[in-house]
Specification:
Elements lengths: L2 H26 L8 H26 L3 H37 L5 H4 L1 H27 L3 E9 L8 E7 L10 H13 L4 E4 L9 H5 L2 H5 L8 E3 L3 H6 L1 H10 L3 E2 L3 E5 L3 E5 L5 H5 L6 H4 L9 E4 L6 H6 L4 E4 L10 H8 L5 E5 L2 E5 L17 E9 L2
Helix pairs in contact: 1-3, 2-3, 3-5
Length: 386
C-alpha cells in the first residue's frame, strides 16, 4: 500500500475509533455525579484502556515484549467490549428518543434518575461482560467440520484423498503457542494425506511469532503428502516475504500463483492474495495463467484466500476451491455484512461442477472472541469416482 494511502487509512480508522469511544464515554460519565471521587478514576481508566489497542499495534512492531503482550490482550478485548457497549448505548438512546416524543416510559424511572442511570450502567457492564466471556470461551473451542465430496475424475492409483484444511490462524501475540499446539495435535489426530492452509497464517507482525517460536509447533504436523499454504491479506499487511521465508523454513510449502502435480493423482494450485497489488504494486496472475498446462482430466484443487469471482473459478474447471478470510463476521452481527458481501460467507456450495468451501477460520483477528460462529478445522474426504 502506498504511504499516502496507508496514512489516510490509519487516520480514518483512528478518527472513527476515537469518535465511537467518545460517544461511549459521554454516556458513561453521566453515571458519576460531578465532584464524585470515582469520576476522575473512571476518566483515567477509560482512556487508558481505549489507548491500549493503538499503543499495542505500534509496540508490537518496534518492541515486542511481555508488557506489549499484556496491552495487546487488553486492547484486543476492548474492541469486543466497545462493539457491544455501542449496541447497548444506541439502544438506550433510541428508547430515550422515542420517549421524548411519545412519553411512554413509566414515571418511576425518572423519580430517581441518578439511580436509574446507575442501574442501567451496572446492568450494561454485566451483560456485555457476559457476552464477551461467552464469545472468548467459544473462540477457544474449535469444531472439526467433516465433509465428504465426490469428484468425477480419475486419480491415478488412488480413489480417496483425506485433506485437512485450516485458514485464518493469525499466529501472533493472541494466537500463540498453546493454540498453535492444539491446532497441530488436532490435525495429526485426523491422519490427513495432505494439509492445506488457506491464508492468514500469520497475524501481520512476525516478531511475536519468532519470539514464541511458533514455527516449531507447525513443524510437528505429519501428513503423507506434506503441508501447503498460500498468502492471505494479513501476510501482506505485515510484509509477506519475511513471513513466507519463515513458514518455508518450518516445513510449509508456499504456493504463489503456481500449480503442482502431487502424487501422480491431482493438481494443487495456490494463488497469491488478491490484496497483493495494494501492498506491493505487483499484480497476481490470472487463474487461467496459474492453471496453464494443467491436465483437466485430473482433479484440480485450488486455494484462494478471499472468496471472490466464484463463477470464474468454476469456469476454469476447478474441482475443489478452498478459501477463508471472512471469519463469517467473527462477531455477531457482522456475519450479516459478510453474507451480503460474499456469495459464500461460510460453508459449502457447489457451482456447476466445482465444489467450494469457505472456512470461518481457526483463529481470530482483533478480539479473541467469536459470537454467532465457531472456529474450525475442516476435514475433507474426497472420493474420485471415474
Amino acid at each position: 500500500m502506498k504511504t499516502g494511502g496507508l496514512i489516510l487509512f490509519i487516520t480514518i480508522v483512528t478518527i472513527i475509533y476515537g469518535l465511537v469511544n467518545y460517544y461511549l464515554f459521554s454516556r458513561a460519565i453521566q453515571v458519576f455525579p460531578s465532584g464524585s471521587p470515582y469520576q476522575a478514576w473512571f476518566i483515567i481508566a477509560f482512556w487508558l484502556i481505549v489507548s491500549t489497542f493503538i499503543l499495542a499495534r505500534i509496540l508490537e512492531r518496534v518492541y515486542p515484549c511481555g508488557f506489549t503482550g499484556v496491552i495487546t490482550w487488553i486492547g484486543s478485548f476492548w474492541l469486543a467490549f466497545m462493539l457491544y457497549f455501542l449496541m447497548v448505548v444506541i439502544l438506550i438512546d433510541l428508547v430515550r428518543l422515542s420517549d421524548h416524543f411519545f412519553h411512554w416510559l413509566p414515571s418511576i424511572i425518572f423519580s430517581d434518575y441518578q439511580k436509574t442511570k446507575t442501574l442501567l450502567f451496572t446492568a450494561s457492564v454485566a451483560l456485555v461482560t457476559l457476552v464477551v466471556v461467552v464469545g472468548f470461551i467459544n473462540a477457544r473451542i474449535p469444531v472439526i467440520r467433516e465433509i465428504n465430496l465426490n469428484i468425477d475424475k480419475k486419480a491415478a492409483d488412488g480413489q480417496t484423498l483425506s485433506i485437512v484444511m485450516a485458514s485464518d490462524i493469525h499466529l501472533g501475540t493472541i494466537i500463540s503457542r498453546r493454540k498453535a499446539t492444539r491446532l497441530v495435535e488436532t490435525i495429526n489426530s485426523l491422519k490427513p494425506d495432505i494439509v492445506l492452509f488457506a491464508g492468514d497464517i500469520v497475524d501481520e507482525d512476525l516478531a511475536p511469532v519468532i519470539k514464541n517460536d511458533l514455527g516449531k509447533s507447525l513443524s510437528g504436523i505429519h501428513s503423507r503428502l506434506g503441508v501447503y499454504a498460500i498468502t492471505g491479506n494479513h501476510e501482506y499487511i505485515g510484509g509477506a516475504e519475511p513471513a513466507i521465508r519463515y513458514l518455508q523454513q518450518h516445513g510449509i510449502t508456499m504456493l504463489r500463483d503456481t500449480t503442482i502435480f502431487i502424487d501422480h493423482k491431482f493438481y494443487l494450485a495456490g494463488r497469491d492474495d488478491r490484496d497483493k497489488p495494494r501492498f506491493t504494486g505487483k499484480t497476481r496472475k490470472g487463474l487461467d495463467e496459474v492453471l496453464y498446462g494443467a491436465d483437466r482430466s485430473y482433479p484440480i484443487i485450488l486455494m484462494d484466500h478471499q472468496p471472490f469471482s466464484l463463477g470464474k473459478t468454476a469456469a476454469q474447471g476447478v474441482d475443489l476451491s478452498l478459501s477463508g478470510h471472512t471469519h463469517h463476521g467473527q462477531l455477531w452481527p457482522f456475519n450479516y455484512i459478510t453474507s451480503a458481501i460474499y456469495e459464500i460467507s461460510h460453508g459449502y456450495k457447489q457451482i456447476g461442477k466445482t465444489h467450494f468451501y469457505v472456512s470461518s477460520g481457526f483463529g481470530t483477528w482483533g478480539p479473541p472472541v467469536r459470537l454467532g460462529n465457531r472456529p474450525e478445522i475442516v476435514h475433507i474426504k474426497l472420493t474420485f469416482n471415474q
